[in-house]
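JOB MANIFEST
job_type = single_chain_structure
chain_count = 1
residues = 319
[input]
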Amino acid sequence: MKILLTGGAGFIGSHLAEKLLKDGHQVSVIDNLSTGKYSNIIHLVRKKDFSYTIDSILNREVMEKLIEKTDRIYHLAAAVGVKYIIDNPLLSLKTNIVGTENVLEFANKYKKKVLIASTSEIYGKNDTIPFKEEADRLLGSTHISRWSYSSAKAIDEFLALAYFREKKLPVVIVRCFNTVGPRQTGQYGMVIPKFVKNALLNHPLEVYGDGKQTRCFCDVDDVTDGMIKLMNEKKAEGEIFNIGNDKSISIEELANQIKKLTNSRSKIEFIKYEDAYEEGFEDMRHRKPDLSKIIEYINYKPKYNLKQILNRTINYFEE
């Protein structure tokens, strides 16, 4: 099967490309390298079933040509990371909305199945934990830049579901919860690689707010396995799925665990959100997925616990 990965030089995309190639598929990648890296796919470029295009999903001519000759699309390309969204609000909105519209328009024209990678940011400040796929969304003011990402990805979901309902385009939507692992960078605000890198250098670990906010972290290997299984499941078409791990940890405790695993002398410093991002910045207190739906559809079960995830990331940075 010929498969197109948008954002395929990114952290998740490069791991997904490896798996699909291993499964015997022909894999084509498009990435503009804004947050992805050529080094993530350099080990794949000589494989006969792999090809790549350095360009933007906003380039309609390029996207139509790529989609026309593919069988399936994993649409992962997006402006990601809280810091990146705040620093590049206009480009982020354009990439996440117009780019997805391009993918869906041409996928519909040539009737290609699409997986849309969405986000747990969709739920906003909803405090009904764990989050179910049909839960209400609760967002802050449009003056707060971070909510633009949640809003843009919600539009992506609305578009995908509209194409499914009106045009019978086969689509699957996955909401990722804090995917981590080798090749992830802390450059755009991702907490585990940022903590690990600083811990190995004995630099301070900056914890935002009081550190009592909780998150659930899932290994990229488990997430990409789930994506492939959902794409192979006919019943998943037209559905939305949480994908991740449902074991919570506070950010303060995460910093302490990483210090311990790296034998680091780093100090933990508490930083106000406003000093780290922007005035009026808002965050979710807790973020935890309800995984019952994805378990029902594909018997999804993460293989990696948090200690294994952290050790894999530590080993990557040490190498």
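[summary]
The chain has a mean pLDDT of 93.
The longest helix spans residues 89-110.
exit_status = 0
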